[in-house]
Every structure is written in C-alpha cells, then in structure tokens.
Amino acid sequence: MNDILIIKNLTKQFKGEKKPSIENINFNLKSGRCLGVVGESGSGKSTLARAVTGLIPITSGEIIFDNNCISRFSPARYKKIYKDLQMIFQLPRESFNPVRSLGESIVLNLKNFGFNGDLKNQAVSLLKRCGLDSTFYNKYPGEVSGGECQRAAIARAIASSPKLLICDEATSALDMIVQRKIISLLNELKEELGMAILFICHDISLVHHMCDDVAVMKDGHIVEKDVTSRIIHHPDNEYTKALIEASNMY
Amino acid sequence: MRTEKILIPSILVISLLLFAFLSPKLTPFDISEQNLMIAKNAPSLSHIMGTDIYGRDMFSRVIAAGRISVFSALAVVLLMSITGVIVGLFCGYLGGIADTVLMRVSDIFLAFPGLVLAIAAAGLFQNGMFGAIIALASVGWPRYARLARGLVLSTKTSTYINAARLSGSNTVQIVFTEILPNIIGQIAVTASLDIGTSLMELSALSFLGLGATPPTPEWGSMINEGRSLLQIAPWITLSPGVAIFITVSIFNIFGEALRDYYNI
Q: Left, alpha or beta for A14 (phi > 0: left; psi -120 to 50: alpha)?
C-alpha cells in the first residue's frame, strides 16, 4: 500500500499567537488505513485537519497528498483535489447550509465534482447507503437529529468516493449509541471504498474501535505514534497513559 | 402566526404597486388638460382634491404621479442595494486591498449628510428624475456595502462555508449561493424600510427642482408648485403630501412586518 498522505515538519502559527498551534508534525498515512489523532482540547488536532484540507494556510512544512505536494496550493488548485479529499465536521447541523436541503447539498457536491446523470437519484442512493431513507432528501438540517445530520454529512463526503476522509471530532457531538453507529458506518465505508481515514478525536476509546494506528498529540506536538494495540496496551508516554486512564476503557 | 403578520402589509404593498402601475389609466380627468376658469378651485364633488393654478384636476395628477414617485423610489433602493450588496459581499469575503480601498471610499460617503450629497450629485447629473435616481443611489450604496460586509464577516467563518469549499464551490458560488441566501433577510428588511425614505428624498429633490420637471406630475414637484399658494389654496400642497404620507406609511409598515418575519 502506498502513502496517500505524508506530513513533513508541519507547523502552523496563527498571527498574534506566541507559540505555534502545531509544530514539526510528521506522519504517513497509507491508503485504506485509518489513523487516529487523539489529544485534549487545544492540542492542535483540528488545526492539523484544517491545515491538511487547505482551509487555513500553513506556516512551514510539507503536505504530500496522493503524490502531490499540496502545501502551497492556491484555493483554486485545492478545489481540484477536494474530489479525493473530504472532511466531516464536528457539528453536523452547522456543516450544512441552513437554507438548503440535505439532498440539495449532496447534489451540489456531485455537480461540482463533474458527476452527470440523475444527480437526485445518486444523492438518494448515497443517503440510503448511510442509513437514511429518501424522505431525508428534502429535509433541512434543522429538521433532523444530530446523528441523522452526521449520516447525511458522511453521504455528502463519500459522494465523490474520496481517497482520504478526515473526520474532525465527527462523533463528539453525538450520544454514545449514535457514536457507535457512526463508527460502524465509517468502518463499513472504509472497507467498501478502500479510502484512508484520518480520525481526529479526543476520546481514545473510540479510536481503539476505529483506527489501525494512533498518534497522540499534546501542545501541538505528536508525543507518541504507533499501531493502536501497542499504544493502548503498552503506552510509553505519560500523557498517553493519562489519556487511557481518563477514558475508562478498562 | 409569522406569515399572518406579514400578510396584510404584503397585500397593502402589492395593491399600492398595482395602483401605481395602473395609475395613468385610473385618472378621472386628463392630467394635462388646463382650464383657467376653474383654477385654484377648492375640493368639491366634481374635483375631490380641488384644482391647481392651471385648473388641472389635482386628484388625477396625484394618482398619475404615483407611478413615477413609487417606481423611482423602488429604482433608487434596488440600485443602491444591489450595488452596495455586491461590493460588501466581495469586500467581506475576499478582504485585502480592495476591501480597504472600497471601505474607505464608503467612509467618505458616510461622512456627509446623504441628502446634501445627493443634491450636489443631482445638480451634477442635470438629468431630471433619472439624474435624481442616480444621485440618491450613488450616495446610498455605502450603507448597504457596510451592512453586507459585516454580515459576510460573521458568516464566512461558518462551518458550512468551509464545507462548501470542500464541496468544490468557487468564490462566486460561495458568495452568491451560500452566503447571500443567509443574509438576504436582513438586507431585504433594510431595503423595504428605505423605500419610504427614498421616496421622501426623491420628493425633496423634485421640490428643489432637481428631480421631475413640470408638467410631469410628481409629488415633490407638485408640493413645490403649491408652496406659494399655501394660504389661499392649501389643497394643492396637501394632496400630494397626503399621498406621500400614505405611501411611506405602507412601506414602513411592510418593512416592520418583514423585520418581525425574519426575526431580526
């Protein structure tokens, strides 16, 4: 398996901040694998996600996605890679335009990425694949539950069959039962579409169920990274140990 | 309940617009027909608003002036809101040097009293009602640019805008299909409340001889025509004044109802 995402010495420092939000981040993510990024609030996880997707400019370092160095891409060039690089946000309702139905948002995605034919039918199929019936096509974000909205967000994200899906705290705003259902849906889709997932989460127990590898972040740095089983059962870093203890996994 | 509250004001505005559009066909007398024998006649059963200094029927002229007065006010609001909103949308979304320059230009416009600047601009254009419309629109757009820019700044960091970028939407798509539909309510409320103000400002320009020119009936110029006769024939001034009062009130009631509807 080849590396779909390579991050080299990635640093992002916001204007007016005394220290970088993320500093010298390095990791590789192979196609079809799931890498979990865990850490407490403010550790830089979401900054990492937004930097990889080009939503914020980086300060230094390299982001290589699908053999292209995208770290200095203009917004127009980024647009071309979004077909293969998608993201699911923490707050599902806020990730949809409130004046557009869920189905129309998926159709917009399909249209922008050059899909032809009956886009409404394709959107309905995607919603069904994510466990929502056709009635959800005409529903607005404010009319559905958080879990249903997140399923629709996943349907939108997988519309273009991306090579990499970034889930930025995608289950954090959901209750425990819905969290598990979303995790199992993401696992199914990962197998079905062969896509890589960068799973950003503060709950290491969820990462345990979802990810092949884990990177633990603290204060903008990766303090430990390895396969999930080793990190969970034999953590080296004190902060990782504290995270595992705090999660009540055992 | 929200829809019910806006129903009656909407019916009033639609009726007013329909009335203004059809007004030349609704006049009981020819608006230019002069009859000096009945000049300055007080309101009577045959001329319910009396006659002017040339013996023309005031009621017919007030009705006929409705079209030019109402639609000119609408043109001013449309022109300044569209221009201002487009400027504000792009300044707010793109930022940078264009934003800085355009916002400083709007600051300059906002530093002067609008009507004074409009009088100067109308004097410059020297083109009757068309010149007055352009003059008012050219001094009124910065308020809309400021409003739209502020709304864009509070909207552009929303998660759904980031999601739209990831959906492959370009800047024009994001500005017009993601941001604009979410801020249009506030702009529509401001615009609807501005129609009455614009109508009064246009009438003021016409009153000063910078808008419609005689014999074209326009409420502001009609008030001016009767100004010197206020003590002996007050109906010449009061009739168009009442028409302005009713029209401005209807648009203001509609604006207030629209504000309640959008919960702004």
A: beta
With a CB cutoff of 8 Å and minimum separation 6, the contacts of B150 are: B88, B92
Q: How many CA atoms lie within 13 A of B113 on its CB side?
A: 4
Neighbours of A124 (CB within 10 A): 21
Size (chain A), residues: 250
A45: left (phi over 0), alpha (psi -120 to 50) or beta: alpha
Chain B residues within 8 Å of chain A (Cβ atoms)? 158-160, 162-171, 173, 177-178, 181-182
Residues of A in contact with B169 (CB under 8 A): 108, 112
**What is the reported pTM?**
0.82
Is the Cβ pair A82, B166 closer than 8 Å? yes
- Angle between helix B219-227 and helix B235-262 axes, rounded to 10 deg: 150
Asked whether the beta carbons of residue A98 and residue B182 sit closer than 8 angstroms, the reply is yes
CA B65/CA B72 separation, integer angstroms: 11
Q: What is the pLDDT along chain B (264 residues), one digit of tens a residue?
A: 667 788 999 999 999 999 999 988 888 888 888 888 888 889 999 899 999 989 999 999 999 999 999 999 999 999 999 999 999 999 999 988 999 999 999 888 888 888 888 888 888 877 788 889 998 998 999 999 999 999 999 999 899 999 999 999 999 999 999 999 999 999 999 999 999 999 999 999 999 888 887 788 899 999 998 888 888 999 999 999 999 999 999 999 999 999 988 887
Minimal Cα distance from A89: which residue of B?
A: B159
